[in-house]
Amino acid sequence: MILQFLGANRQVTGSMFLLELDDGFRILVDCGQDLEKNPLPVEDTGSDPFPFAPSEIDLVLLTHAHIDHSGRLPTLYRHGYTGDILSTLPTYYLASLLLADSAQLMRKKAEAQQDRNRKRKQRRLGHGGENEWAEYSSHDVDQSLSRFVTVDFGQAYVARPNLTIIFNPTGHLLGASNIIVEARRSDGSACRIAFSGDVGRYNYPLLNDPVPLPRVDYLVCESTYGGRLHVDKNQPGDILEGIIREVCVEQSGKLLIPSFSVGRTQSLLYVLHRLQLESRLPEIPIYVDSPLAIESTRAYQHLHRFLSTDARAVLARFDDLFSFKQLHLVQSLSESKALSDHYRPCIIISASGMLEGGRIQHHLRHQLQNSKACILFIGFVAEGTFGRRLLDGEPIWQNEGKKIEVRAQIRRTDVFSGHADHNGLVEFVGSQTPETLKTVFLTHGDYPAMLALEETLSEKGYHVEIPYKTQTFTL
Ligand SMILES: [Zn+2]
């Protein structure tokens, strides 16, 4: 049996692993977009977008819907894959929203490029003007969505006589799982391989706690927070309440929260709703300014049976998890722009979470130079993005030919991070004993994070590998 590493190697995003069974059956686990090199969807990478022939893949398994795990599934179909994608039901729902949004962004980007080419052609006859294609279209998205097969958590899915697959809840995002592949080798022996997906945290708003991993032979483990501990120890509600009072009440400023529309925004809204129910939320308006976030919020409500016990109790009592008096959903772009024009205290939750595109851009244009405003980051911010530069102290933002001085307060909290920290990852691997676990393969982390996690795990007696991209291992 051969395992090949094809993405998220020594970096965080772009998860992709290829497992080939002894009889030649080929399974692709995750098919994610590399957000670090391409924060926005990329153009077509040519006729060979994968280091394998998509038509020769037999089955795809998807750990969860985040685009760095799912974002290239439509490309796979566009280039010849015709098989199924196995995932949980919430993963299917959320992936359908994220992939449709991704195709739309690509279309806009391709149209803008065509526009530029047309203008260039007018200036310099005979040069430019050729079409640039998006990596995939909404038709490719529809193709991939039509091939999802959903599986319940904990259900043993027998894909073929020598292959059983189980999805286990891992917190992190609604529907997120680690996946256990149990396959028989040609000599009849069994081999169990676990793919961690992204390892979630305990007591995360809206989500059930991760379930410990059963015994496996090999573990492919994420390492995003290797070497780092979450620093915010207070409850999410306490932290949010403190920041809101400081920014919106004491300073009468605007609080801008760049947030991922799927998952993070819903957790944030749920915590705000809980504060409101406890009469702890100051009477200021809260705007969710992202059509994708609004759709995702409806999906979360619809998928309530997968939510945490306390969230289901709130739903049973108040009939709605997310809507409350101060909350306004901003659908249209004109409404969104009107929000930028006033300076009254309010909270604006908008996308993108890393400030690369999205409606948050026009709010930033108005608020970055306002010393009473605060930009609060609540999620992962990749290297190379404007969000990262702002966190690193960038003093000036160059936007649409203008230079904007950064005078707003820039803050972050890790309390909404959906990832386990260093100790959480060590605890996750600790469900296995070094005597029975043959190898832990570290993926989905910066190299220093991987080295830090490798050191702790090695001290505990585990055999650790940090694969490079395309590296193969015989299991
Ligand atoms: Zn994720």
Question: TL;DR?
Answer:
The chain is of the alpha/beta class. The chain has helices spanning 67-70, 73-78, 89-123, 138-145, 236-250, 264-277, 291-302, 309-318, 333-340, 360-367, 386-391, 422-429, 447-459; strands at 2-7, 16-20, 26-29, 59-61, 85-87, 148-150, 157-160, 163-169, 177-184, 190-195, 218-222, 254-258, 286-289, 327-329, 346-350, 374-377, 396-399, 402-405, 409-412, 439-443, 464-465, 472-474. Zinc ion is lined by residues 64, 66, 172-173, 198.
Chart the SSEs and their pairings.
Blueprint: E1 2-7, E2 16-20, E3 26-29, E4 59-61, H1 67-70, H2 73-78, E5 85-87, H3 89-123, H4 138-145, E6 148-150, E7 157-160, E8 163-169, E9 177-184, E10 190-195, E11 218-222, H5 236-250, E12 254-258, H6 264-277, E13 286-289, H7 291-302, H8 309-318, E14 327-329, H9 333-340, E15 346-350, H10 360-367, E16 374-377, H11 386-391, E17 396-399, E18 402-405, E19 409-412, H12 422-429, E20 439-443, H13 447-459, E21 464-465, E22 472-474
The structure holds zinc ion.
Q: Helix/strand/pairing class, anyone? A: alpha/beta
Instruction: Give the amount of beta strand, in percent.
Output: 15-25%
Number of helices: 13
| Low-pLDDT residue spans | 39-45, 124-132
Average predicted confidence as pLDDT: 90
How many beta-strand segments?
A: 22
Spatial order of the strands forming the largest sheet: 6-5-4-3-2-1-22
Specify the overall morphology.
globular
Bound molecules: zinc ion
Q: For the CA atoms, what is the radius of gyration?
A: 23 Å
CATH fold-level name of the largest domain: Metallo-beta-lactamase, Chain A
